[in-house]
Amino acid sequence: MTTLGRTRLADVGTYVAFGVICLFFAGPLLWLVSLSIRTSAEIYVSSINLWPNNPTLENYVAALNNPLFPTYLWNGLKLAVGGAFGAIFFAAPAAYALSRFRFRNKQLAMIGLLAVQMISPLVIMVPLYRYMDRIGLTDSHVGAMMLYIAIAAPLFTWMLKGFLDGIPRSLEEAAMIDGCTRFGAFMRVVLPLSLPGLTSAFVLNAILGWSQFIIPFILISKPNLLPIAVGIFNFQGTYSQTSTQTLAAASVISIVPAVVVFLVLQRFIIGALMSGAVKG
Amino acid sequence: MSQDAVARPAARAAVSDTGVRWRLAERPFVWLAPLALLLVVTYVYPAIDVIRYSFTDATLLNPQYAYTADSYRSVATNPDLPGILWVTLLFVVASVILQLVLGLLVAMVLHRGVKRRLPGVAAVRIIILSAWIVPGVAAGIVWQLMFNEASYGFLNAMLRGAGISPVAWLSDPDIALWSAVIANVWRGTAFSMLLLYAGLVVIPSSLYEAASVDGATPLKQFWYITLPQLRPILLINTVLISIFTLNTFDLILPLTGGGPGRATEVLALYTYNAVFRNFDLSSGAVLAVLLLAISVVFTLIYVRLLPREL
Amino acid sequence: MKKLFPSTLLAGTVLAGFVATAGAQELVTTDRVGSPDAPNVLTMRANPNQSTNSPSPEQKAAFEKVWQEFAEAHPDWQIQFEFFGQDIGGEHARLLEQARAGRAPDCVTVDSFQLALFIDNGVLKPLDDYFSQEEIDDLFPFIREGVTGPDGSIYAWWWGTDLRVLYRNTEIVPEAPQTWEELQAAALKATESGIEGVLFNGGRWEGTTFDWLANFWAQGGSLVDDSGKPIFGEGENREKMLTAINYFKGLVDSGAAPKRVATIKDYNDFNAAAIAGSAAMFFGGHWQHFQLMEAMPEAEFAKWDVSELPGPSADERSTGTGGWTVAAFSDDPAKVEMCANVMREVYMGPANEVIGDLPTRESLFASLPKFQDPYFGKLKEYLVNGHARPGVPIYPEISNQIQIMMGEVLSGTKEPEAALDGAWNRVMDAYGKL
Q1: Which terminal residue of chain A, N or C, has fewer Cβ atoms less than 10 Å from its own Cβ?
Q2: Model confidence, pTM
């Protein structure tokens, strides 16, 4: 078989794999979409058919007409993006130190970071609430954001450290020979070079923040401050109401902003990675 | 705080103010301090408080409490604990293995697709990502309807259509846990996929080219190039998803609530229940410490496997 | 970092597209009632179903009307809302924690079975000054007991209740089964035509315990004694528990109920089965009548009827009654009074009309137009056998253990005796720690 033929065959294989992957991952999502365009009467009736008999957009109208819904989305975006962005300020210098310096207990510091990452908010929820309450940071985005940053920072540091390891030191050394301070070299040379790494760590942590549930659940009770991951619960009636279809519509909409942000940044990441590869 | 590997630049000669700042910048501690401070304030302090609570008889109902080690004794002698730990172990190990394997497969397929510039790659990525972003409660509801054992349940309807007898997805205690694993893997794979994909992209293609020239089969290339190159990222990925999975309960809660009986009651859910159902803060704290201890053990094992040079 | 900016901007634009245009001076919004300029602020946390944030469009509109009148009657006040999530148990634990810290909202809708926690912890304000003795005496006895504290004051207004009934497709089961035996026979007969005989809650949630307890109460059983100490695992109460467990186990073992009941933890599952025509009977809540009416074609709905839950014998009957209260947490007497106004003007009566939860006052049952429907006449008869869950702090754990027990028995992992003793021991452990 020719090389071309083999590549073609592999392409077919790739598409078969795409198909299987999509079936597993898209199936339940299509289901969610299907639920979101049903009338309450049809939620259970023709479950086997993805396309309902009387498709309706009313559930989307109902979700969007709830004036709190955009607020939830906005808060979710603000906390997720703010948390990931804030994490840069703590993670970038730390990652730099872990990548560029040699010092005793460095391994310990890396493991310590992991250890903190292991403390789930679930573990500390009650003391955390009492403590944040004492210092007046419940029902505030400042308090919540602080925790989003703290949750994102260790992982951010790990990812960025790995990326920095791949950037040759010669560039910043050259800058320092030219009279730059180390901090200046870090700001003007290292950070711009690590933009792809920063971006992918940013995206990952922003999305983790987007689905963060326990922190806002514990710390925030004012509806105009809630992010979507918690606010979405308000679309689920308690047992005396059937509102699965509205919840489904709200869920579908809530995926959109995150996907959009990801799409935009993803393109940027791939571009950056590719240009890096060409240069390297 | 010994030597820095970077050659000392000439700027060192600069004096006074700049000199002090310059020397400070040479200390790794200075670079690490903001992060350390943040983590101590937000995480370490409450975590120490949890340990303190675990040595009390505190409840949510009673603001007064006394110090005692009874809470540890009662958790240690709790007849349900072995069962819960077993369920947790199965849930975590199965979820982690599946997420790793699936995540790696998907990442490799995607990587190939991107390299070959095959159309449709972006769509696949978005689909997997969406599964990750769906709010936990919605994921729980969707999977509950998929697994539903009534005549209108989706999976069983498909099985029946294919002439296979229906499965008791959630009502059979032995199967319910695996159903929970499937739902969890569905939601969690995207994270592994993203990390591993990033790892694949940075493997120099020259390695593969050289191997091809030497006539190595794709399988051999995978075994001798891809896996070793991915090792650090695989390890960190494993640690992270183990911790995530260990602490997951927001999917199981809407899916099975921990039932039937205790068949799907993982340690995280049990901890949540101890605090929020029984108002038993001290037992909840002991369980939280236990969760922490398990994570530490997990991590130590992985650290042994990590390459020396970090 | 500059490159991050356009994406944020873009996401912002996407979001902005969603933002509905809201009038500046509306008196009723999703999370505020009254003018935003009103000098006095009352914070209120509500179950979304019982507010202008209701997921049901009809009920949302109806609540907006009720609150509009309230806002017009109290122009100096604005009410700012917070909402419960769906994990009611967790929400109440959080509320208690906040009340402790002095940060609870001024006025809160509290689930009736959790009310005792708050009364016992002394975080509620007495309401005797705001309700007349006549109004209090007008409450059904079990309701009055539920809101009265140890000192004889009332600490909440329990404004609506629900109850459990047997739904049946009269085409398949023409006669309403009166006893457990009749029910099982009718269900078995129904399965011959290839459908599910009877459905009930058996999954891991509060409804499983609550619906099933009627069978325990019908025999005269008690979960706790007068001091709130659990007694269900000893002596004749234990026997009654076992009898009630064996009744459900028998339904599943005989095939009268499908095995999947062990997974049902949502009343909507019954609606689904009824609509799909795949079940002959189910134990459900009285409100499902209206859901089925809305969701089914008229001819189909006409086949369905409700009757009292069957008992061990035709004379021993019981049904679980739940419902919601409103309680005041504020230290400010003016806010407590405004909260009492909310109870009186929004919940006592109007909210019953909106949601269909039964009024808790004899006279309101007789006077509110909605409840003159013959359906409610029937429910009122069943309400005589109404039984509320014991308002004691240990109840949530009793319920949790009963749910586990039920799952173990229905899925066949444990025999009833072993499962019950397991539940009993764990409850007593937890009771010792309270």
Answers
A1: N
A2: 0.85
